[in-house]
Amino acid sequence: MTVRAAQRQVVTERLAGHLLATGLSRTSVRQLAAAAGVSDRMLLYYFRDKAEALGEAMGHVAAQLGGRLEAALPAGARLSPERLLAESARIVTAPDVRPFMALWMEVIAAAARGEAPFAGIAGQVTAGFLGWIETRLDIEDAERRAATAGLILAAVDGLALLEIGAGAPAALAAAERARDLRFTP
């Protein structure tokens, strides 16, 4: 790895931490550079533009969350939709995952407003989450498995919305109820 690549990795990690701590409220080039501990010029030396810096940082955030998900439900695990929903609900309502989910809600909102580069980021992260869910579902039919993955993702993201709008107790109560849901074959 070149020195530039190694330094870019450090900057990416710092940007990811900044996004988890502040959300999207402090994402001007100057604010991102300060968070990374570099000058504006150096930030743009490591990345073509702000969009690339945010994309790389969000990729790092997604990889961090993916690592937590992988540790909780390793590849190769095949679960019923009910069990996967309940386990996913438990994971995303954990206190250490809340900053990830809050940032994710901000990214989705920015994508809905058409703000660059968030539509692309949202699409990539959503595809990654859907793929992660699909590979863990014990459903033979590919079409049904994909549709069920979408439903589980919508429910899990809904827990993050519920927590923001109604508070953690409401989200935790809803996550607990996820265990009682049944999917028809």
UniProtKB/TrEMBL annotation:
Tell me the keywords, alphabetical order.
DNA-binding
Q: Name one GO molecular function term.
A: DNA binding
Q: Which residue ranges hold the DNA-binding region?
A: 28-47
Pfam family, any one: TetR_N
According to the record, the signal peptide region is none
Q: Which residues form the HTH tetR-type domain?
A: 5-65
Q: Which PROSITE patterns match?
A: HTH_TETR_2 (PS50977)
Q: What is this protein called?
A: TetR/AcrR family transcriptional regulator
Species annotation: Phenylobacterium parvum
